[in-house]
UniProtKB/TrEMBL annotation:
GO terms for cellular component: cytosol. The keyword DNA-binding does not apply. Keywords: Aminoacyl-tRNA synthetase, ATP-binding, Cytoplasm, Ligase, Nucleotide-binding, Protein biosynthesis. CDD domains: Anticodon_Ia_Val, ValRS_core. GO terms for molecular function: aminoacyl-tRNA deacylase activity; ATP binding; valine-tRNA ligase activity. GO terms for biological process: valyl-tRNA aminoacylation. This is valine--tRNA ligase. It comes from the Bacteria. It catalyses: tRNA(Val) + L-valine + ATP = L-valyl-tRNA(Val) + AMP + diphosphate. Residues 598-696 form the Methionyl/Valyl/Leucyl/Isoleucyl-tRNA synthetase anticodon-binding domain. PANTHER family: VALINE--TRNA LIGASE, CHLOROPLASTIC_MITOCHONDRIAL 2, VALYL-TRNA SYNTHETASES.
Amino acid sequence: MTHMKDSGFSKAYDPKEHEQVIYKRWEDSGLFNPDNLPERHTQPFCMTMAPPNVTGSLHMGHALEYIISDVLIRYKRMRGYRVLWLPGTDHAGIATQNVVEKELKKEGKTRHDLGREKFLLRVWKWKETYGEIILDQLRKLGASLDWSRTRFTMDTAYQKAVEMAFLHYHQKGWIYKGKRTINWCSRCVTSLSDLEIEYREEKTKFYYIQYGPVIIGTVRPETKLGDTALAVHPDDERYRQYAGKEILIQSVDPNVPRTEAPRLKEISIKVISDEAANPEFGSGVIKVTPAHDITDFEIKERHHEVPVIKVIGEDGRMTHEAGIRYEGMAVREAREQIVKDLEAIGLLSRIEDYIHNVAVCYRCGTVLEPLLSDQWFLKMDELAKKAREAVVSGKVVFHPKRWEKLYFNWLDNIRDWCISRQIWWGHRIPLEGETDVLDTWFSSALWPFVTLGWPKKTKDLATYYPTNVLTNDRGIINLWDARMIFSGLEFVNEVPFKDLVIHATILTSEGKRMSKSLGTGIDPLRLIEKHGADATRFGIIWQAMGGQDIRWAEEHVVAGKKFLNKIWNASRFVLQQTENSNIPDAKPKTTLDANSNIIQTFEASRDRVTAHIEHFEFGQALHDIYDFFWHTFCDQYLENAKHPELKDKKETNETLLWVLASSLKVLHPFIPFVTERVWENLPKEKKELLIIETWPR
RNA sequence: GCGCGCGUAGCUCAGUUGGUUAGAGCGCUUGCUCGACACGCAAGAGGUCAGAGGUUCGAAUCCUCUCGCGCGCACCA
């Protein structure tokens, strides 16, 4: 029992006693920094961690992503790679600005009260206070990141790199400024790209309005004030007589003051032929409002005679051009007013209930207002081609492969990227007289090579780029992954990563998306607090079977906790049995069947685990080594080893120690703390930290 | 509307190219305080593999359809 006494091996494993101490030991060893790895670590392996927003604290999505990344990273380190896992945070333009604005609001102020400069100081202060919190939480998870290389998407060198990238595109003529109808969030007071939109089902009314000889259905009668044409499908026989002609219609006079009763006004409007009009839907005639509908704007682009009238402003209120009757009204108010007016003058034919999807801001949930605006765009045709080719040629491989479809689907229907945002927190557009900032994803897109030193030709960039693996949720395949791919190809001439692993999304036990605002989220820090990091990691990985969504079940964390205890006690037993023996350097030579068998069975299990990790099947890998360790090694072999025919034999002791030590190595990527802790107790000369021990052969 | 994924024990999920009594974890039942572990050990109950039809000597596994759930795209005038 001397091993046990010396090392303070108590009967039950308590993660709280060990985890923080062990993480400190790893960090102090400097081995998370590839520069400090032993000589034998030659071939580079690199991942640049998806930088979390400085607004956030760790949620289950992060936990899953960083845990499986860490499994891969630790595995590769043990395989002898020169491993770099690079951490950092994202300034997350709109999201962070919103958080700080909310804070200001509590003080009764807006950002405009402070002015741009003071507001930005305030955001920086916020970033300094909260930006590192999420990174500290990663330490609790056991993430083996090289903290010496931590980056931020707005650190000085990063800002310079973003500027370089913008100017590069600008010189190529791929960046242009244009008046176009874009998605506008009147709460965030900024434009959004087509990927920063979410859809929400909404019950609304569908209004049928008389337009001279035809009737038109719409959910947004207030945009009627900005109608500049009608459109019918070229093949629609019903309306052939009107196509291409100006027709006279009765409408409501928008310049009659609100205080007076509505009056009719006769106006002339052009009817054009366009395939966007669907004869099957509604009356088959559409009103064209180019300033407030993206499809309508595209129609206008095809028919240059169609004018543009902007009747809704950036503040979500009706403009002067809407007419004095409606000017200044919020969109909803204006809608009610115009419906009332149309009804009063007999132009409203009927109203139906209607359910449809409305576009909302992905950051604040406000219903978006498409409107005509002056914005900067990045031409996408060449870049999309590059991104497409990278996946077609296999330079970037999706896992599972089916997610390619989502990627191709976006690239094949791409619109130019609206890259300007009317917020203050972000990278300023580096041109004279420009006040806008860049879409936060413009800088994120450069992450894998800027963090390695670009635009400088650094040693890191030469060594670690292209990086090997990126893993993230399907939700940002186009928002981030696609843009990193074309950016990498454009600026470094190489894809940013070779394998793109789309991991599962963790849902609630009811199968719903976890949501902070609904209070349905599980807090991984609470799990760590309650069960320890290893058990949390175990529970999450156990459920990560392929790319399938996970309905969260905490019982697997509990199972993990039990498993740690099993490992702990099995190790105590082995040490007790094998007193005065050392772990053999090589696989022991055995003559007894039981010993030979357990070694063989271990090797088969190790090979399955290895193959599973190589294929990014982390759950399966864990199931395999779990099953071997508990049911084969403990339940069968350790019991046999108590019997006289095996007990106290030299080869049995060697086998016990060798299989235990080798199992700890295979288990280490999944549950690093307990394995390192037990490893520390094993009798071995010249022992290194388990994190750089060699994967068993 | 188009496409993708899923529907297997009470619950959360595995089931590789179709092939013996369909597996795991948790839960449940019955025994075990025999010096590694009761966060344990041993034994066990529990499944018409969503439904219908088809291919096959043989299907949870392949094909068709239906139903249910989730997601992406389109529509959303």
